[in-house]
From TrEMBL:
Transmembrane domains' residue ranges: 12-33, 74-104, 116-133, 145-174, 180-197, 209-231, 268-296, 308-331, 343-361
Location of the protein in the cell: Cell membrane
Record's bilayer topology term: Multi-pass membrane protein
Protein name, per record: Putative chromate transport protein
The organism of origin for this protein: Microcystis aeruginosa Sj
InterPro entries membership: Chr_Tranpt_l_chain, Chromate_transpt
Molecular function GO terms recorded: chromate transmembrane transporter activity
Family indicated by similarity: Belongs to the chromate ion transporter (CHR) (TC 2.A.51) family.
GO cellular component: plasma membrane
Gene this chain is encoded by: srpC
Keyword terms: Cell membrane, Membrane, Transmembrane, Transmembrane helix
Organism placement in taxonomy: Bacteria, Bacillati, Cyanobacteriota, Cyanophyceae, Oscillatoriophycideae
Length: 385
């Protein structure tokens, strides 16, 4: 149920600039923040429509959270809104990454921000869980959809690719929900593998760099770790433009900066061709997302009007919630099971996650303040030793 008038361009810009600044923790955390702000706090969009957008972004290449920001901007502001929300969401990460790239190139090392991230991660788990709880209640609205979600979780546990699991959930759900004997079959080609070659030390050019990141942005499905495979195969082993150590440091940058992980391209572009390389790499990797959303967004309401497509979207939404369950499970294990002091697990991180969850779910505390508090706690613990 909508509780307020649609936002103007200034409101969209300020909101997504804020999310871009505080958006630590990857796409699931970004989407959780968007759900809290756009659906819960501001009432600009219904949960049903938000879920449709989440499901749709999982089916196309590119960074899911960036495409969610672009979708929301396009819905409320047309082409101008599409550009403004996308740019505002991406810019903080790009500027921070570019600054860190300059430090890295100038001084040969990265600043120690691990304590900040250590304090933020437990809070991010709670933020994702809050969104999962709210969206899950809406997406898993029938027993059939619950079984579909559980089935997708099972496929993910067995190691099936997340995109294939999502599509299977949608197709099987369409059968279960509508009992269609036949239906249109859409086959989407997922980005092909990049050949691994012996390093050839081809001199880097802006055109070559731009074309590489344009290709990556056009075919990249899945998590940011899929990006690593492209970078390793093409830029390290293929062209020899990047050393393995530079690649590892670029991955580290992507892990502890807010906003979309594809801002890693900014860091890599700077390492290869300086400021111009950073600009070209950034524009190239994000450009396809704007085009995909521009083409897809008008189709989503039409899909809802079709019985079979509506069932497919319902099943995709249930499957997308299952993907969020997998994300929060893996993130929780990685955060909570780290040895801390004399314990085999991180008791402080567990407590911080639980307290944050209670403050979010029970007392409706704004997640922005909790993320900032987590960062301060991380810094304080570092100082106390």
């Amino acid at each position: 149920m909508l509780t307020s008038s649609p936002p103007n361009l200034s409101q969209l810009a300020l909101l997504f600039l804020k999310i871009g600044i505080i958006g630590f923790g990857g796409p699931a955390a970004h989407i959780a923040l968007m759900e809290e702000e756009v659906v819960k706090r501001r009432g600009w969009m219904t949960k049903e429509r938000f879920l449709d957008l989440v499901g749709a972004t999982n089916l196309i290449p590119g960074p899911n959270s960036t495409e969610m920001a672009i979708h929301i901007g396009y819905i409320f502001g047309g082409l101008a809104g599409l550009i403004i929300t996308g740019v505002c969401f991406i810019t903080p990460a790009v500027l921070i990454t570019g600054f860190l790239a300059w430090i890295y190139t100038t001084y040969g090392t990265l600043p120690d921000v691990a304590p900040i991230f250590a304090g933020i991660k437990p809070v991010v788990i709670a933020v994702i869980f809050q969104a999962l709880w709210r969206l899950g209640k809406k997406a898993l609205k029938t027993r059939q959809l619950l079984f579909i979600g559980l089935g997708v979780i099972g496929l993910l546990i067995l190691g099936l690719n997340e995109i294939i699991a999502l599509l299977l959930g949608g197709i099987i759900g369409m059968f279960i929900l509508k009992k269609f004997a036949t239906f249109p079959l859409i086959v989407a080609g997922i980005g092909g593998a990049t050949a691994v070659a012996t390093p050839s030390k081809i001199p880097p050019t802006l055109t070559g760099l731009g074309l590489f990141f344009l290709k990556v942005g056009s075919v990249l499905f899945g998590s940011g770790y899929v990006l690593v495979a492209f970078l390793e195969a093409d830029l390290v082993q293929g062209k020899g433009w990047l050393t393995r150590q530079q690649l590892l440091d670029a991955i580290a940058i992507g892990q502890f900066t807010p906003g979309p992980v594809l801002s890693t391209a900014t860091f890599i572009g700077y390492q290869i061709l300086g400021v111009s390389g950073a600009i070209v790499a950034t524009l190239a990797i994000f450009f396809p997302s704007f085009i995909f959303v521009l083409l897809l967004n008008p189709l989503i309401p039409k899909l809802r009007q079709s019985a079979w497509a509506g069932a497919f979207l319902d099943a995709i939404n249930a499957s997308a919630v299952a993907l969020m369950v997998a994300v929060i499970f893996n993130l929780s294990l990685a955060t909570w099971l780290q040895p801390y002091r004399n314990l085999p697990f991180n008791l402080l991180a567990i407590i911080l996650s639980l307290v944050s969850g209670i403050l979010l779910l029970r007392f409706q505390v704004n997640s922005t303040w909790l993320i900032l508090a987590g960062a301060l706690i991380g810094l304080l613990l570092k100082q106390l030793g």
